[in-house]
Every structure is written in structure tokens, then in C-alpha cells.
UniProtKB/TrEMBL annotation:
It comes from Hymenobacter ginsengisoli. PANTHER family: UPF0173 METAL-DEPENDENT HYDROLASE MJ1163, UPF0173 METAL-DEPENDENT HYDROLASE MJ1163-RELATED. Belongs to the UPF0173 family. It comes from the Bacteria. InterPro entries: Metallo-B-lactamas, RibonucZ/Hydroxyglut_hydro, UPF0173, UPF0173_UPF0282_UlaG_hydrolase. This is UPF0173 metal-dependent hydrolase GCM10023172_05150.
Length: 228
């Protein structure tokens, strides 16, 4: 399993040669100016909710690559009307795909399209890979700390969690460390931080706080790829 960070909450997860892109907000992000969006390949695009900082590049990438968009029914309908192939789902649903399974879980956050229209409710995703390593990754989306996260830890064995840590619009790091406890992992990859001044973080302080809590926090460089 390889994970590449494109900034904000956008990642590319490669499982057994299948490319899964999360929440593509790249071209409008000045911190990701060195990323060539036109070179990104994807087979599936998973979208957690409808805000512009999570769907900005979804249409262009899906149309260029032929990727299928996996999202809640309202978002699937929105992109399906553009002629994009979609897989609609909803909270509690499980989608079986060539790389494994996608469990749709609750995220405590708002959701609307850039024009303000209704985009369903926000979700997170629990990805269980079928590549032989059988690792489980939790992509939290923009969630706040909520007791729903305890259900994830009870129902799944999470190896690594991608958690928002920027505060203000999502939970901050202190709550994210509690969330990691509740979902049952010590491995955290931070997201949804630094993109805007209001969610800028002190990296050294964040790493120290996570270490003191017994967690391994990774703050990836934009464009960096790691093996999970």
C-alpha cells in the first residue's frame, strides 16, 4: 500500500496497482503549486463531502482518467449528471471494489456544494485492502470528535488513520489524539492543516504533543509518498 499526499485532505492510495484518490483539492491550493494535477492518475475517487476544498479537481480528474467517483448519493448524483461514472452509497454502506472494501462511516461535519445547495451528509471511509497485506486505513474526512468514532474501533482493526488536525473547521490535534484512541490506532497521518491561515499549526509542537500521548504522528510533505 502506497500513500501520496497532495495537500489539505487529498491523498492517492495505491493498492495492488489500483489508484484511489481522496478529496481532490489541489489546483486551487497554493501550497500544492508544484503538483502537476494533469499527471495524476486515478481509478476511483472517494469524496467525503461536497465542500469546494474537497471536490475542486474531482470533475476534471474523473473526466480525464475515467475514474469512478464513490460518494454519498447526493454527490454521486451531482457528478453523474456531468456524465461521470459514479457509485452512490450512504452511511453504513459497504462497497466492494477491486482493491478491497470501502465502509462508509459517520463524520460530524456539514456538507454543501460550492453553490450552497444540499450535498447530503459528510462521511468518512474505512478501507480494507485485499492486496495480501490486508491492512485497514481510516480516512476521517472533516469530522469533529464524536462518539461514533468508537464504533469504528469496535468494528474494525485500524492500522493507520488519516485525521484532520487543523482545528477551527474540524477537530484539532488534541481531539484527533482522542479519536486515534477510539478507533484503536497509534499511527496517525495528519491532514486538513496549514492550507489557510486559520488552520495553520506549529509542526514541532504537534509532533511533541502526539509523542507525549503515545501516538506516531506523520506530517507528510506535499508530494511525498510513503509505504504503509
Amino acid at each position: 500500500m502506497q500513500l501520496t499526499y497532495f495537500g489539505h485532505a487529498s491523498f492517492l492510495l495505491t493498492i495492488g496497482g489500483v489508484r484511489v484518490l481522496f478529496d481532490p483539492f489541489i489546483s486551487p491550493n497554493p501550497l500544492a503549486k508544484d503538483i502537476n494535477v494533469g499527471a495524476i492518475q486515478a481509478d476511483y475517487i472517494l469524496i467525503s463531502h461536497g465542500h469546494g476544498d474537497h471536490i475542486a479537481d474531482a470533475e476534471a480528474i474523473a473526466k480525464r482518467t475515467g475514474a469512478k467517483i464513490v460518494a454519498i448519493a447526493e454527490i454521486a448524483g451531482y457528478f453523474g449528471a456531468m456524465g461521470i461514472e459514479v457509485i452512490g452509497t450512504n452511511l453504513g454502506g459497504k462497497v466492494v471494489l477491486p482493491f478491497g472494501t470501502v465502509h462508509c462511516v459517520a463524520a460530524a461535519h456539514s456538507s454543501s456544494f460550492p453553490d450552497g445547495s444540499y450535498a447530503g451528509v459528510a462521511m468518512g471511509f474505512v478501507i480494507k485492502a485485499n492486496d495480501g497485506q490486508h491492512k485497514t486505513l481510516y480516512f476521517a474526512g472533516d469530522t469533529a470528535l464524536t462518539y461514533d468514532l468508537k464504533l469504528i474501533g469496535e468494528r474494525h482493526k485500524v492500522d493507520v488513520a488519516l485525521l484532520p488536525i487543523g482545528d477551527n473547521y474540524t477537530m484539532g490535534l488534541t481531539d484527533a489524539l482522542v479519536a486515534a484512541d477510539w478507533v484503536g490506532t497509534r499511527e496517525i497521518i495528519g491532514m486538513h492543516y496549514d492550507t489557510f491561515p486559520v488552520i495553520a499549526i506549529n509542526h514541532e509542537a504537534a509532533l511533541a504533543e502526539a509523542k507525549a500521548a503515545g501516538k506516531n504522528l506523520r506530517l507528510l510533505r506535499i508530494g511525498e509518498s510513503i509505504e504503509l
